Amino acid sequence: MTTTGLRVNHLRKTFQGGSVVACQDVNLDIEQGELLVLLGPSGCGKTTT
Description:
By secondary structure, this protein is mainly beta. The protein has strands at residues 4-15, 20-31. The protein has a domain at 1-32. The N and C termini lie far apart (29 Å). The mean pLDDT is 91.
């Protein structure tokens, strides 16, 4: 049996008053004890996420 440590349902992120959609309908379950790593080049928005 696993325990969900973090659950994200139907995430939507927009910029510029909603005219720019960065992501839409993102679902994510991170189980307790798991690690999540965001990889990407400098300036791509990892911290903004």
